[in-house]
Structures are given as structure tokens and as C-alpha cells.
Amino acid sequence: LGALSHIEDVRQAEPGEFTKRAFLNGKMDLAEVEGLADLLRAETEAQRIQALAQMEGSLSKLYMQWTHDLKMCLANVEAFIDFSEDQGIEEAILDSAAAQAEKLATEIQAHLSDGRRGERLRGGVKVAIIGRTNVGKSSLFNALCQRDAAIVSPIAGTTRDVVESMLDIGGYPAVFSDTAGLRNSDDPVEQEGISRAQRWAAGADLALIVVDSKEFLHLQPTTDFTEDYLKQLGLMSCAPLRLIVFNKRDLLSADEQVAVEKKAKRLPVESCFTSCTTLQGIADLVKILSARLEALCGKPAECSPLLTQERHRRNLEQCLKHLKLFSTEVQNDSVIGAEHLRIAITHIGKITGRVFTEEILDVIFRDFCIGK
After folding, report:
1. Domain count of the chain?
2. Which percentage of the chain shows pLDDT scores above 90?
3. The whole model's pTM is what?
4. Residue 157 CB neighbour total at 10 angstroms
5. I need a labelling partner for 7 at 20 to 30 A (CA). Which of 23, 140, 223, 258 fits?
């Protein structure tokens, strides 16, 4: 490379330069470019499947169809505006355009109401490991990571910050967060760790609530056990999806294990039993997590194209907004209605790159490897 750089008119390619040239020459659109970028960064099989489908045009074809339908609506409205008096075009053409716009609005709304599955799959499902001090959260985190990712100690309050690790669970990406133990503390550093744990629990997609099996043995489970337990921990807000992990199973006698399992079955929340010392139950926990992640992300090979970027979502929301304004305005003022359709088309064009600015391109291409 050093020798090549001394040749006149030869230089090292910029990050994403080849892909950018493909885009500027009409070989790829922006949605396909983003799919390629996601494919290069993919860490799990499900991410690769989703990224490959987007790179091959699954989203682009959908957006092109919507653009075509919007242009047909606009053509009808403009025909009415330009020729209704001379050619006797009836107002029924506006009704037809309004009906088509309403159909498109329904399709776009359904596309937006996907539970953010594509975005979640692209970035990783957020899984917070929460619970009291010394229940084995860090040990569980290490067992899932299969390495010493977090410090483990018998001293309560060892974990004071959030430790994250991206794991491949059954082909799905999951960002696990080991958090500080929840308790009352006068230590300002530990208090900050607890505050962070509470924020992570509130922002997670799935919460693993770790409970000491021995402690649970002496508790009276109720139908509201999970909510009551979270309130005891000081968690006013927590991920809506929860899984209770009864840890330290190896410290129970055979009779105690039977008693604890019987009590756990009465809970309204799914649970499992683990021992981070013997690794008993870890494989079962991974199976449960895999099923939960699949439910949160869907199967990319079987799903219709999913939204993968916040940029797409914002533009589609604006497109939907102007479609609704068109439906409201078209009968009163067809000229204003037509303008709303043009704006709707522009917002879809921003997704595919038919309409773009240098700022958008800089953001998309800056994360590519050199030369890609």
C-alpha cells in the first residue's frame, strides 16, 4: 500500500467509497446500501438474514410500489385540477384517489406498527439482569457470556456500574446488562450504580429478575408477586417482558427444591432454576431466552420486510401524516391535497435516496470499512 500510494493519481479508497459510487451511479439505492452496511456488521444469523434481504431490495421494492401508487393518486388529482372544466372529468376521480390514499395509509400504518422488531434485531434485544445484592447476577452474567466478564465477590455491592455484552442467543443478538444490586445504601457511588440499574431496567426489552432460591422458599407467592417484589427493590418502572431466574439452586436440599418449584408454578410469570456454580439450568435458561428473542424479533426469513432504521420510521411517519392531510383536504381544495401527496412522495424518496442531501450520505457511508 505504501508503494502504491506513491504512484501518481493512485490513492487509498475512502470508507464506503465503492458503495457510494454504486449508489451515485444508480446501482443501489440507500435502503440497499444500509442493508449492505448491516450485513458487514452482522454478528448473528438472524441479523445476516435480515440484512441480506434488505441489501437485495426487499424494502426497496415495497417503497417503490408505494411511490408508484402515490404517483398514480397524484396523476388523478392533477388531471382533475387541469382538465375538470374542459374535459368534463368528474369528481369521482377524487374519490378514487382518496380511496387509494386511504389504502396506502393503512398499509404504511401496519408497516410502522411492527413493534420495532426489525430495529431490535438490527441493534440487539436489550436484556437487563436485575435483583438484590448477592443473588448471583454477575455470576449469571458470566455463565451466559462463558467468560469472566464481570467481577464476582461475596461482598454485597461489588457491581457498581452497568457491564454490557452482546451475545448470540439462538441466532438472535441480545445485549445483556449486569447491573448493581438493588438495596438501600448511603454510599454515593453505589447509589449512582443503583440509579443506573433502575434506568436500564426501565429501558430494557426483557428483564431477568434474579432471586435467591433460598429467599423465595420463605416468601409467600401471590398473583402480584412480581410487581410486589419489584416495588420492594425500588423499581417503579421495569421492562414489560420479565423472566424470573431462581438462582443458587445447588444450595437447596432435594425437598426444598421440590417445594420451591411447586411455589414457582403458582406465579403468573415464567421462571426457571439455575446454579451458576454447577451451571445447572443455564442451558434451559438459554432455550427460554431464545424463544423470547424470537417472539420479540420475529423470523426474518418468514416475515414481510421490517423497518430497520429510525430514519425510515421518521420519513414514513411524515408520509403517513401527509396522506391523512390529503384525505382531509382533497374534496375542499384539490390543489392543497395534491401538494400533500407530493410531500408524501418526497419522504419516501428520502428513504431510498431518490431525494437526498450530502449530510444524509455522510452519516450512512461514514461507518463503512475502508474501500467497501
Report:
1. 2
2. 60
3. 0.84
4. 17
5. 23
